[in-house]
Amino acid sequence: MKATALEVAKWMLGELNLEQILYQETAVWEIQEKFGGSFVYENDRGNLAISGEVLSEFKNISEDIVVWINGERYWRFREETDEPGRRQDY
């Protein structure tokens, strides 16, 4: 049975719960290995990236509790000192 983008997003949130941090580079390779190539793509820089559908589902299930740390390219749980919004530029 083929996984859905929502199932991949739930896996991402589960990994975040286990590790407290989820690096994009690690996640994309694990997604490809566990769920297949339909959830990743090669971006314009030639790097493997997570599909927009998966990222959209991930945002939907974690928007209020997870932030994206742009400079380091990872997700973590929101802290009281975070700025409003999902993206944090540290």
Task: Describe the structure in your own words.
The chain is α+β, with helices and mostly antiparallel strands. 42% of the residues lie in helices and 21% in strands. It is built from three helices and six strands. The protein has a four-stranded mixed β-sheet with strand order 1-5-4-6. β4 and β5 form a beta hairpin. α1 crosses α3. It is globular, with a radius of gyration of 13 Å. The termini are far apart. The model has no long low-confidence stretch (mean pLDDT 95).
Keywords, separated by commas or semicolons:
90 residues; alpha+beta; four-stranded mixed sheet; two-stranded antiparallel ribbon; 21% strand
Helices, strands, pairings?
Blueprint: H1 5-19, E1 21-23, H2 24-35, E2 40-42, E3 48-50, H3 52-62, E4 66-69, E5 74-77, E6 87-88
Parallel strand pairs: 4-6
Antiparallel strand pairs: 1-5, 2-3, 4-5
Helix pairs in contact: 1-3
Quick take:
With 90 residues, this protein is α+β, with helices and mostly antiparallel strands. The protein is built from 3 helices and 6 strands. The protein is globular, with a radius of gyration of 13 Å.
Distance between the termini: 40 Å
Shape: globular
Strand content: 15-25%
Report the structural category. alpha+beta
The helix tally amounts to 3
The total strand number stands at 6
Helix content: 40-55%
Q: If you average the pLDDT, what whole number results?
A: 95
Q: Give helix and strand order, one letter per element, not per position.
A: HEHEEHEEE
Largest sheet, in brief, is: 4 strands, mixed
Low-confidence stretches: none
If strands are numbered along the chain, what order do they take across the biggest sheet?
1-5-4-6
Estimated radius of gyration: 13 Å
